[in-house]
Amino acid sequence: MPTLPGLLTFAALSLVALVAGVSLTRLVPALASQHPGLIALGLLLLFWTIRERWMRSRLQARLIAEIDGLTEELMHMRGEIPPPAMSMPPAIALQTGALQAGTLPPANAAVAREAANESAREPRLVMRDIAAAPEPADDGSLLEAVRDALNNNRVELHIQPIVSLPQRRIRFFELLARPRDAEGQTYRAAECLDALEAAGLRDEFDALMLLRSVQLVRKLEQRAKDVGFFLNLSPAMLAQIETFNPLYDFLQREREHAANIVLEFGHAGIAKLDRAGLYRLSRLAALGFAISVDGIDRFDVDFALLAKNGVRFVKFDAAAFGDAGAIARSPIDLADLPEICQRHNLVPVLGKVENEQELLKLSDLDFPFGQGMLFGIPKLARAA
Questions:
Q1: pLDDT tens across 340-354, in order?
Q2: How many Å apart are CA 142 and CA 181, to the nearest integer?
Q3: Are 234 and 110 contained in the same domain?
Q4: Residues near 46 by Cβ (< 8 Å), separated by ≥ 6?
Q5: Would you say the C-alpha torsion 315, 165, 177, 212 has a positive or negative sign?
Q6: How far is CA 106 from the centre of its chain?
Q7: What is the pTM of this model?
Q8: Longest Cα separation, the chain
Q9: How many domains would you assign to the chain?
Q10: CB neighbours (10 Å) of residue 176?
């Protein structure tokens, strides 16, 4: 939906174009036979195109300036989290652990030793536990804090591991961006995204995350090509051509990094997409980016449709397997879930695993990957 500033800008440019069109027909004899309205329309399109390119370049310059500092922090972090050899396509695996003898594959030992030497010379990173981030009252303060954080480049980068099961070796990281207010408090992702959606700021937030992820990949892949990140994006970016085109154009320019980035969309939003929206999703997959659908809390899922439109990973909420209503509505036997995913070339991930009992109850389903507080809470890397 157009914003008031956008409408006012459009109106101002329309007026300027109209005045310029009338003036040109009077001052230039060759244009005297042309209708002023046609000339004004052409000028308006030219003005609007120039404005859009200027705004896009300004936004990217501002975001990239903020990204550079965070990329250096993540490179420092690799002194404590070295990558392993990758064992599963697409090539986006990242295994971490302490730098101890025998814990890393030989192919990455040299990289690990180099990272360890650098970390000894440079300031070490302190990992701050932000699991107990505040949940402010819904009185508008959260929205104001999120907007202020975006305007002042106070969006912190957190990473949460996705592990292989049953080995529990870290294979991927999911990037989580959490706004920080002027007092230094960070806010949980779920509340932030709701506030961003309500304020119409989700697209800018997603642009920040996308640019940051690509910047990280560019710097890290020179030393370790097996680094990969799950990146959350709003399904609303697929619903409208106006929001999809800038996303597609950017990803097309960065497709050489596609093997290191997984684009993740919420299932609730994907389920609401029409045929055009699903087609746009498949176009992103055609660029080479792996697609993930998370937040699946039901089992009446059209697996064939997801696979047809390029989805590779499907994340099921662990709590859904204990939901009597979801199980009753399921058209499949849950014991057949692994075989169904394999048939459609989908990789299932067990998400939001909170405790050992939850994992033990679902061990018979043989999930290849798991994510949740049991395997690792989101961590913020901050230079000490």
A1: 999 999 999 999 999
A2: 9
A3: yes
A4: none
A5: negative
A6: 32
A7: 0.64
A8: 84
A9: 2
A10: 21
